[in-house]
Amino acid sequence: MSKVLQIDNLHVAIGGKEILKGVNLTIRQGEVHALMGPNGSGKSTLSYALMGHPNYEVTSGTVTLGGEDILALEADERAKAGLFLAFQYPTSIPGVTVANFLRHAVTNVRSPERKEGEELISMREFRKELREQMDELGMDPEFARRYLNEGFSGGEKKRAEVLQLAMLRPAFAILDETDSGLDIDAVRVVSEGVNRVAGKIGTGVLVITHYKRILDYIKPQFVHILFGGRVVESGGPELVDVLEREGYDWVRAKYPEAARDEDEMEQQQSAATGQLTF
């Protein structure tokens, strides 16, 4: 039976400033959803709040995964429950190889009751699976011996995220502006990897993006517009073409209250530049 990620009336604040003002989304395993909106509309806030970033305070609303309240869980527990976040700007971890990082992550996700210091997944089993996944993604085996994201190009960082997705097999994956900083060839390669992995394991995908180009490769069945901290429009892939053609002026005209909130959030973001991403 497929799981459902259910977001109901979610309100989130950063430093006492409300950013999300009642987000509602329903995503089922196997579905691909796109979340679009202008800078500062709250897209990254949603991704970080869902994953449990401590600086993003959920002030009201609920989020359940397979019927379980994930807001009551720590970030690592949310990962064990089946939630995955591909970061817009993945962090480098000098001294920790990709393989070592993945072996620990895979063990903890697949054995959620494991205590620190207990045995990891067997090296033979892990190496075999890692090699298979890297072959499928067209990755050089030497990649696994490099320190995680240390000296990686933008494309390599995003491919490392896709490799994590393949190894962790989450029920739901949030891709937070995965196309950010990538040229068109890298977008295509990373997107093909996401499609292959998600299609194989039946992952529900939420693609957060500003632009149409990644959606030419990761094709959503459902598209949502986040504006002024709430989802104001939902529809099919045709919404992407409308935004590409007309921008957000029609959204602003149709939802004046959300437009006022959007303007206020843009001012807050300008004042907070260099601190947190909305």
Topology:
Layout: E1 4-14, E2 17-28, E3 32-36, H1 43-51, E4 56-65, E5 68-69, H2 75-81, E6 83-86, E7 93-97, H3 98-110, H4 123-136, E8 147-148, H5 154-168, E9 172-176, H6 184-201, E10 204-209, E11 222-227, E12 230-235, H7 238-246, H8 249-254, H9 256-271
Parallel strand pairs: 3-10, 3-11, 6-9, 9-10
Antiparallel strand pairs: 1-2, 1-4, 4-5, 7-8, 11-12
Protein traits:
9 helices; six-stranded mixed beta sheet; alpha/beta; 12 strands; 27% strand; four-stranded antiparallel beta sheet
Task: Describe what you observe in this structure.
By secondary structure, this protein is α/β, with parallel strands linked by helices. The chain folds into 2 domains: 4-90 and 171-271, P-loop containing nucleotide triphosphate hydrolases (Rossmann fold), CATH 3.40.50.300; 92-151, no CATH class. It has 9 helices and 12 strands. The strands form 3 sheets. The protein has a 6-stranded mixed β-sheet, sandwiched between helices. Strands 2-1-4-5 form a 4-stranded antiparallel β-sheet. A two-stranded antiparallel ribbon has the order 7-8. A hairpin with a 2-residue loop joins strand 11 and strand 12. Helix 5 (154-168) packs parallel to helix 6 (184-201).
